[in-house]
Amino acid sequence: MSIPINISGVGGAVDGYAFLDVAGCGGTASNPATVSTADANCHVNFMSVDYDNWAEFTASFPNARVSLGAIPFIIADQPGSYSIYNIDLR
């Protein structure tokens, strides 16, 4: 998941993208994982810094918001089978 983030919480400028992926959530080809901002085991990479989970990331940027007018997206850039369902960005 690639989520456009504005760290000031004002305006729509994209300061960077918060990245969450299967590998960062403990998944492997033989043991898939759910990618979720609610999962305490899902690492978040933002501006080349790795955060243990979404809670740690948001604590580091308390005013951050999804950038207005920017589109979060999902990309499958590793071989495998993926199911995408129940998307809920809060």
Please describe what this structure looks like.
- With 90 residues, this protein is mostly beta strands.
- Helix content is 8%, strand content 19%.
- The protein has one helix and five strands.
- The protein has one helix spanning 54-60; strands at residues 2-6, 16-19, 44-46, 49-51, 65-66.
- A five-stranded antiparallel β-sheet has the order 4-3-2-1-5.
- Strand 3 and strand 4 form a beta hairpin.
Alpha-carbon distance between the termini?
Answer: 13 Å
- Our Rg estimate from Cα atoms comes to 13 Å
- Strand % is 15-25%
Number of strands: 5
Total helical elements:
1
| Largest sheet strand order | 4-3-2-1-5
Secondary-structure element order, N to C: EEEEHE
Mean pLDDT: 88
Largest beta sheet, briefly? 5 strands, antiparallel
Q: Give the overall shape.
A: globular
Give the fraction of residues assigned to helices. under 10%
